[in-house]
């Protein structure tokens, strides 16, 4: 039998290295970590970049995993327990709310959308499964931060990106908002990621009561909020009912 192909082994080692770190890595760091010559490491990184398995920051020249890997790996979502136990409840929530519903879990400092139900009308919509959302500017992400599903400290080490003038980027503002989310049991973002759009989300708990994900409703701000920019109570009610139902299915006894 033929032996292993060295170039593929090296490419796999680079992908594991990038996946295992919390930051982007430069060419020299990749080469020294794996004991490769810089020329060899550079050639493999360029190939991985060509097929979108690796992305290079144009400002720093450093490398991170590419979006194609997320889409390549979305087959696991079909057997993911959180997604499978949420599908029926998410469909029902979209029907009751009249809005799009997304389910998210934390991944490498972002929110990975693992399920998306379109708004139940005939408008053109784009499937968000596999998309990565910012933690601080999405209702799903703020809920995950507030309830400890992902740490907030790395986000605050560098000033978060401002997507609109409403985005919370100062640590004091963000911490205050997360405290309010914990008190209320749900979170919102109103034009923080995209002008004219708003969303609300609630935590999903598993066994032991730990938050394992979040479910959210999103749409045009005039449909999600009242004239003062406050999320509509009726939407909050049906959202929290769906989150509790999924949590019960996952074994969260107190829900």
Proportion of helical residues:
40-55%
Major sheet size, sense and barrel closure: 6 strands, antiparallel
What are the secondary-structure elements, in order, as H or E?
Answer: HHHEEHHEEEHHHEEEHH
| Portion in strands | 15-25%
Terminal residue distance = 55 Å
Determine the structural class based on helices, strands and strand pairing: alpha+beta
Give the spatial strand order of the biggest sheet: 5-4-3-8-7-6
Mean pLDDT: 88
Flag low-confidence runs.
74-79
Radius of gyration: 20 Å
In DSSP terms (H or I, runs of 4 or more residues), the helix count works out at 10
Overall spatial form: elongated
The count of DSSP E runs of length 2 or more, i.e. the number of strands, is: 8
Domain HTH iclR-type: 5-67
Organism: Streptomyces coerulescens
Domain IclR-ED: 68-252
Pfam families: HTH_IclR, IclR_C
Description:
The chain has 255 residues and is α+β, with helices and mostly antiparallel strands. Helices cover 42% and strands 19% of the residues. It has 10 helices and 8 strands. It has helices spanning 6-20, 27-34, 38-50, 67-72, 81-97, 139-146, 153-157, 171-184, 221-224, 233-249, and strands at 54-56, 63-65, 100-107, 110-117, 132-134, 187-190, 197-205, 211-220. The strands form 2 sheets. A 6-stranded antiparallel sheet has the order 5-4-3-8-7-6, sandwiched between helices. The chain has a two-stranded antiparallel ribbon with strand order 1-2. Strand 6 (187-190) and strand 7 (197-205) form a beta hairpin. The termini are far apart. Residues 74-79 have low confidence and may be disordered.
């Amino acid at each position: 039998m033929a032996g292993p192909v060295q170039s593929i082994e090296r490419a796999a080692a680079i992908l594991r290295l990038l996946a295992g770190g919390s930051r982007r890595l430069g060419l020299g760091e990749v080469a020294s970590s794996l004991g490769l010559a810089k020329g060899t490491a550079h050639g493999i990184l360029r190939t991985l970049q060509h097929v979108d398995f690796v992305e290079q920051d144009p400002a720093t020249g450093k490398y991170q995993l590419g979006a194609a890997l997320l889409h390549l790996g979305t087959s696991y979502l079909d057997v993911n327990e959180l997604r499978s136990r949420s599908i029926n409840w998410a469909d029902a929530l979209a029907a009751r709310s009249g809005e799009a519903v997304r389910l998210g879990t934390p991944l490498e400092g972002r929110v990975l959308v693992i399920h998306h139900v379109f708004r139940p009308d005939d408008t053109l919509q784009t499937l968000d499964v596999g998309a990565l959302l910012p933690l601080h500017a999405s209702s799903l992400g703020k809920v995950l931060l507030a309830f400890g599903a992902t740490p907030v400290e790395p986000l605050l080490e560098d000033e978060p990106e401002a997507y609109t003038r409403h985005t919370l980027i100062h640590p004091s503002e963000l911490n205050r908002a997360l405290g309010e989310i914990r008190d209320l049991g749900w979170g919102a973002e109103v034009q923080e990621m995209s002008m004219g759009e708003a969303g609300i989300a609630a935590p999903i708990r598993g066994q032991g009561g730990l938050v394992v994900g979040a479910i959210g409703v999103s749409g045009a701000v005039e449909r999600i909020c009242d004239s003062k920019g406050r999320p509509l109570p009726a939407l909050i009610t049906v959202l929290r009912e769906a989150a509790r139902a999924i949590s019960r299915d996952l074994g969260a006894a107190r829900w």
